[in-house]
Specification:
The protein has 177 residues and is mostly beta strands. The chain has one domain: Pnp Oxidase, Chain A (Roll). Helices cover 12% and strands 37% of the residues. The chain has 3 helices and 12 strands, in the order H-E-E-E-E-E-H-E-H-E-E-E-E-E-E. The chain has helices at residues 17-24, 70-77, 90-95, and strands at residues 29-30, 32-36, 43-47, 51-54, 59-65, 79-84, 109-111, 117-119, 124-136, 139-150, 160-162, 165-167. Strands 3-2-6-9-10-5-4 form a 7-stranded antiparallel beta sheet. A 3-stranded antiparallel beta sheet has the order 1-11-12, with no helix packed on it. A hairpin with a 4-residue loop joins strand 4 and strand 5 (59-65). It starts with 16 loop residues before the first helix and ends in a 10-residue tail after the last strand. Bound molecules: flavin mononucleotide. The site of flavin mononucleotide (FMN) has 16 residues, from strand 3 and strand 5.
C-alpha cells in the first residue's frame, strides 16, 4: 500500500486548497505558454491545465483563473495559441507565471496567419478558435477548436512540471508497447 505523507494526510471534504495543490502536483504535466491578442494587446501566461479533448472535431481545453489578465484578451480576440515549451524554456515558463508576466516582445515570436503570437522556439504549437467557455469554479474552462498547428523544434525534449518544480525527462521506459 502507498502511504500518504504526514504533510498531506488523508482529508475528507471540505478539502484544503493547499493540500489539493500538493496532491495534484504529483501528476506530472508538460508546460505551455498560452498566447493571445495582437499588437499592443498581445499577452501570454504559463499554463499546465492543457488537455487534448477531441480529434474530430479537433478540440482542446485550457483553464484560466478568473483573475487572469490573459482571460479577457482571449475572450476579446476569440482565440489562443498553446505553445508547448522545450526543456530549455524554463526561464520563459517562469517569466510568464509571475505577478508581472513578461511581454510577448521579450521572447522570440512570430504572428500566425490568424494574427496571434506564436513562440518561435516552442516545441510545438496549436492555434485555436475559442468555441465555448464553461464555469469551472474559480477558473474558466476554455474549449478551443484547433485551426492551425506546427512542431518547429522536433529534436528538443519537453519541459516537465512535477511537485512544484520544472524538470527534464528522465530515462525512457524499457517496456515495449
Ligand atoms: C507550471 C505552472 C502551471 C500553471 N498553470 C496554470 C493554469 O493552468 N491556469 C492558470 O490560470 N494559471 C496557471 N498558472 C499560474 C499562471 O501562470 C500565473 O498566475 C500567471 O501570472 C497568470 O498570468 P495572467 O494573469 O497574465 O493570466 C501556472 C503556473 C505555473 C508555474
Amino acid at each position: 500500500m502507498i502511504s500518504v505523507s504526514q504533510s498531506t494526510s488523508e482529508q475528507l471534504s471540505p478539502v484544503d486548497g493547499r493540500a489539493l495543490r500538493t496532491v495534484c502536483g504529483n501528476f506530472a504535466t508538460g508546460v505551455t505558454v498560452i498566447t493571445s491578442g495582437s499588437a499592443e494587446n498581445a499577452a501570454g501566461a504559463t499554463v499546465n491545465s492543457f488537455t487534448s479533448v477531441s480529434v474530430d472535431p479537433p478540440l482542446v481545453l485550457i483553464c484560466l483563473h478568473e483573475n487572469s489578465r490573459l482571460l479577457p484578451v482571449v475572450q476579446e480576440s476569440g482565440g489562443f495559441v498553446v505553445n508547448f515549451l522545450t526543456h530549455q524554456q524554463e526561464p520563459v515558463a517562469w517569466a510568464f507565471a509571475g505577478r508581472q508576466t513578461a511581454r510577448i516582445e521579450e521572447v522570440p515570436h512570430h504572428m500566425s496567419a490568424g494574427d496571434m503570437p506564436v513562440l518561435s522556439e516552442a516545441l510545438a504549437y496549436l492555434e485555436c478558435r475559442l468555441v465555448t467557455e464553461y464555469d469551472g469554479g474559480d477558473h474558466a474552462i476554455l474549449l478551443g477548436e484547433v485551426v492551425a498547428l506546427g512542431a518547429p523544434a522536433k529534436k528538443e525534449d519537453p519541459l516537465i512540471f512535477f511537485q512544484g518544480s520544472m524538470r527534464e525527462l528522465g530515462r525512457e521506459s524499457a517496456l515495449q508497447r
